[in-house]
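HUMAN: Spend a minute on the protein record below and explain its fold to me.
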Amino acid sequence: MNDLICICDLRRMFAEAAVRIRDHSKMLSQLDSIGGDGDHGITMVRAMEVLENELNVENDKLLNDRLKDAGWGVLSVSGGASSALLGTFVCGMGDVNLGRENDCKHLAASFVAGLHAVEKQTKARPGDKTMMDALVPAVQAIEAAANSGESIARTMERAADAAGTGAASTKDMIARYGRAKFLGEKARGSADAGATSIALLFQGFSAAFAEQEGA
């Protein structure tokens, strides 16, 4: 297997992620309704549609520029913090110079840059019952796997596992940000919608490479 990522792989990653977001949009909105507006699922579906559309545009731009364009597109989606932070993350991924084909370490650097961009926009950190509980461990897993010489497929698998574990851990947390922070102990028992959507995102990323790994 040629272990390099190109625009076709990037499109497939976000397409697989979009499928999972659409399939679970009602669940995401239900989770959001506990302490928020209940529109997280709808917002994420719109955001993923924009991402797919932007990445499907035919042009000769390098991957980092494609990510910048896609991220800016998501930032235009109304929906509060969730779309703003997702757009920031994707834009941030474009802060790393990426060619038309990139290895796992370049991909990892892009994800790390995306996380750093988000960290500049929010004070939330793991343990606060937000998307960061899934995003931070996912990116850390990508960086560690890439530095260990893992394939892109294995790296994305590790990230999906870490994001899933992080999202599940929010069930036992008290929210410190957003409307949910006013719920106190009542916030326990349900996972955070943002963290759950990030876990679904990385599940899609992993699925995009799963068949290649088995080839």
Q: What stands out?
A: The chain has one domain: 7-214.
